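A quick aside before the break. I want you to see a complete sequence-to-structure record at least once, exactly as it would be stored in a machine-readable document. Don't worry about memorizing anything.
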Amino acid sequence: MITHDLRSHKSAEHLPRAAQLAWKIAEVAADPVAVEPAVTEMIINRIIDNAAVAAAAVARRPVASARAQALCHPFKKGATLFGMPHGTRVSPEWAAWANGTAVRELDFHDTFLAADYSHPGDNIPPVLAVAQHTGKSGADLIRGIATGYEIQVNLVRGICLHAHKIDHIAHLGPSAAAGLGTLLNLPVDTIYQAVQQALHVTTTTRQSRKGEISSWKAFAPAFAGKMAIEAVDRVMRGEGAPSPAWEGEDGFIAWLLGGPDARYQVPLPGEGEAKRAILDTYTKEHSAEYQSQALIDLARRMGSEIGDPAGIDSIVIHTSHHTHHVIGTGANDPQKMDPNASRETLDHSIMYIFAVALEDRGWHHETSYTPERAARPETVALWHKISTVEDPEWTRRYHAQDPGEKAFGGRVVVTLKDGRILTDELALADAHPAGARPFRRGNYIRKFLTLSDGIIAPGEQQRFLDAAENLADLPADGLGILNFTVDPGRLGSHRPHGIFDWT
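That is the input. The structure line, written in tokens, reads:
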């Protein structure tokens, strides 16, 4: 890996293209380096993972609404939509929008955490949609997805967005554009412009993940994928982008990040170096914010020792800066303690999550979030006994580069009404690659079969799994089978009247 120093430059300095981050990203995307077998295997895992969570969400209102919008944009070639017949095709940017929303709705797919947050599986819907539309092969798709993961993960390693209240889709737009550049074998200068356009149009604030969190939390990454496709299309037609997007005097670093004196280090593979970043990412066993995964497992483990939760006087979770300030009491966000909060808010409240996981000795992607579950008096009472504090050691481990040190969990101190104090800690979720029960192919398949049970017919489940597992051998124009269909009665309802429905 080569670490690239990044700062803003005055216009008079005339930063050459070859020295700009967007150009370096484009060079990585255009590098024809082979994809390693382990990376191919993990890409297949994540395609299965995305389909699993999309199936579980296929009838939810935001997903149904996004699909209804997409269906207003039919396209003869086009791309498929989760839940619809394979022959139903829409314009690829709208397929990316609908499928990306389905993947993101339950906050239940893969993650990478470093200087910032990310769900790099969000790169898959736009790259797959364009691959279907342009008649690419399974091998082409694998190369494009490998690049999307590589760029997003390394941007997340080097540039913190949340400290400046910028939403993490500002890393996703450029990574998806780079992945499309690889998929389509575009030249460096074309990818360079597309990456910058995508950054420019996908920079938004973190209010989408704070306060009264709405369905936009699921739509936002899908929007980034849609914008990446449109950016690539524009640039292929000869249009340019604001340059240099990151380093310019009035650019991203100078005004939206750390300012003219800020310095960032972004690692990227050198020429001929394999794109392996997907192997550093991890998926979720539980449908909740990733920083809650280990704490759900810890609540499950501590439940038997604690016994009746009514005997608890207080619970303090000692954890990282990120966990405390984003999903903990350090967010100073009253909605995180509100039984009437939205599902999107509850899955960003570790106080709620830990309370329910402790009472139920586990977690469920639907029943753990129902209004009835959130409003139980005993749950509300326990929930309000829980607080978080930042522990510098957990913050250090969160940011550690050494995989043996890196951790996303915390230490929990439970004070009982009888005066006893129980303490336990867990650094990594059980499903993490270094956890107690790391996810393998069988786990991804089981997750798909579990989440799609009663939604996708058994024969269709197996057909999709067979297609995904044979991804590397799928021929040109053969990617339409990377889709699943469901009975129309299971697709949910949506608000039927919008601009695109006008007749």
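Two observations worth writing down. The radius of gyration is 22 Å. The chain has a mean pLDDT of 95. We'll return to this after the break.
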